[in-house]
Specification:
Elements lengths: L7 E6 L4 H12 L3 E8 L10 E5 L18 E4 L10 H22 L4 E5 L13 H13 L6 E5 L3 E3 L9 H5 L4 H7 L4 E3 H14 L5 E2 L1 H8 L1
Parallel strand pairs: 1-2, 1-4, 2-3, 4-5, 5-6, 6-9, 7-8
Helix pairs in contact: 1-6, 2-3, 6-7
C-alpha cells in the first residue's frame, strides 16, 4: 500500500472512553491528521479547530447522519464496553451488531477508507473459545475484514497507559498507574500506551499495516 502524505480525515468513536479520548488527543496534536469527526452519544469534553463533534443518539441507526459520513480516509473505532454482567446476545448487539452497522455505513460511502478497530488482547479469532467476550470480538474482527474497505485492521491492546490530563480514565487505572513501568518491564508484550495505539493507527491509515491483527508488540513496532 502506497503511503499517503496528505493530512488524514478521520472518523473517531469512543472519545468519551479512555482509549478513544487518548487517541483523539494524540490525533489533534499530530500534523498527520487534518480533521477529526467525533461520533459520540454525549459530549467528550474537548474542543479543537481540527475537530467536529457529532452527537449520535443511536449508533444502531446512522441513517439520519449518513450523508455527513463521506470524504474520510480512516475510522478509528475505539467504542467498546465491558462484557461483565451481560448475556452473549446483549454483548453481541453492543460489540458486534453496532460495530458492523457503523462499518457498513462508512464502507458504502468511503470505499478507500481504512478501518482501525480496537479489539483486545486475548480475542478469539476462531470464534469457538470458552470466553464469551473473546468469541464476540473475534467474530467482529473477522466480519470487518469482509467489508469493502481499503483495509480493516484489528488492534489488540493489553494494559494501557493513558495520556496525562485525560478526563476519561477508569479509576482502577488511576490507582494502579504506578504499576505500569513494572508491567512494561516484566511483560513488554502486554503493556503499551494510548499514544502508541494512536500513532500505529495513523501509520496504518497512511501506509498500511503488516498484518490484519496487531498484538501489543506489533502496535508498538508500528508506532515507532
Amino acid at each position: 500500500m502506497a503511503e499517503s502524505t496528505k493530512p488524514l480525515r478521520v472518523v473517531l468513536t469512543g472519545a468519551s472512553g479512555m482509549v478513544g479520548e487518548g487517541v483523539l488527543l494524540h490525533c489533534l496534536q499530530s500534523p498527520a491528521v487534518g480533521h477529526v469527526l467525533v461520533l459520540s452519544r454525549r459530549p467528550c469534553g474537548h474542543q479543537h479547530p481540527k475537530m467536529r463533534e457529532l452527537l449520535v443518539p443511536d449508533f444502531h441507526n446512522l441513517s439520519p447522519i449518513a450523508d455527513q459520513l463521506t470524504g474520510f480516509d480512516a475510522c478509528f473505532f475505539c467504542l467498546g464496553t465491558s462484557a461483565i454482567g451481560m448475556t452473549e446476545a446483549d454483548y453481541t448487539r453492543v460489540s458486534h451488531t453496532l460495530t458492523l452497522h457503523v462499518a457498513e455505513t462508512l464502507a458504502a460511502r468511503n470505499p478507500a477508507l481504512t478501518f482501525c478497530y480496537v479489539s483486545g488482547a486475548g480475542t478469539d479469532s476462531t470464534e469457538n473459545g470458552r470466553q464469551m467476550w473473546a468469541r464476540v470480538k473475534g467474530r467482529t474482527e473477522n466480519d470487518l475484514r469482509k467489508l469493502p474497505f481499503r483495509a480493516a485492521v484489528a488492534f489488540r491492546p493489553g494494559t494501557i497507559k493513558p495520556l496525562p490530563g485525560q478526563l476519561h480514565v477508569l479509576k482502577l487505572y488511576r490507582r494502579l498507574s504506578w504499576l505500569y513501568p513494572i508491567v512494561r518491564t516484566l511483560a513488554p508484550g502486554f503493556a503499551g500506551t494510548v499514544s502508541e495505539i494512536a500513532q500505529a493507527m495513523i501509520h496504518t491509515a497512511q501506509r498500511g499495516a503488516p498484518k490484519p491483527v496487531l498484538e501489543v508488540r506489533d502496535i508498538r513496532a508500528l508506532a515507532a
